[in-house]
Amino acid sequence: QSVLTQPPSVSAAPGQKVTISCSGSSSNIGNNYVSWYQQLPGTAPKLLIYDNNKRPSGIPDRFSGSKSGTSATLGITGLQTGDEADYYCGTWDSSLSAHVVFGGGTKLTVL
Amino acid sequence: EVQLLESGGGLVQPGGSLRLSCAASGFTFSSYAMSWVRQAPGKGLEWVSAISGSGGSTYYADSVKGRFTISRDNSKNTLYLQMNSLRAEDTAVYYCASFLWIGGTMDVWGKGTTVTVSS
Q1: To the nearest whole angstrom, how far is the Cα of A54 from the nearest Cα of chain B?
Q2: pLDDT digit string (tens) for A13-66?
Q3: How far does the CA of residue A73 sit from the closest CA of chain B (Å)?
Q4: Among A32, A57, B39, B41, who pairs with A92 as Cys (CB 3.0-4.6 Å)?
Q5: Tens digit of pLDDT for each residue in B48-93?
Q6: Residue B38 φ then ψ, to 5°
Q7: Are B98 and A45 spatial neighbours (Cβ–Cβ below 8 Å)?
Q8: CA A29 to each of CA A26, A87, B67, B85: distance values in angstroms, whole numbers, following the listed order
Q9: Which of B93, B54, B45, B48 is nearest to B73 (CA)?
Q10: Please, is A96 exposed, middle or buried when counting C-beta atoms within 10 Å of its C-beta (0-12, 13-18, 19+)?
């Protein structure tokens, strides 16, 4: 059971838009920045979004992030077959001792 | 180009020990915090530990506290994870990553090294 809650899977057609939610609490998302990671099959994770809505160099603006209260959302527009991957949200959690927590991951299928 | 290369994984018996290494290049290693993240077979990501650039501050997940020790040698641009009292549930791919304290963000990731705990 992950501290952050994500839908197990989402799907959409090429060219369409999809959103992935990440729900937490005041001890994590509510008081910290959120990051998003993409893990293509058989590869290491890669940072997509940090500080809720900032993109590292090289990440296309098709990827966006937002946060409201204790939830965060990753948006992907203009879906491509190459976007098929697992997506994870992450942030600090200060409930007992400071540690980083992740969501359980969301499998994106581009139909 | 920033590169992180993990090594030291392998097969170890329950109760045994293993030391992972992560060689860094392409950036000023001592200026960056670093972290270890693991992924059990078919499962999601689990943060393991983080260490400040100087090595003076360390953080651990409850699941490994008291068994694992994170350290670094800035003269060798290398991050370590000493793993003792290993359990079957420690079986995973272990990734090292550069770490941004604000947001607890893993910035650049290595390709990972596989640890299997089994008799």
Answers
A1: 12
A2: 999 999 999 999 999 999 999 999 999 999 999 999 999 999 999 999 999 999
A3: 15
A4: A32
A5: 999 999 999 999 999 999 999 999 999 999 999 999 999 999 999 9
A6: -125, 160
A7: no
A8: 6, 17, 28, 33
A9: B54
A10: exposed
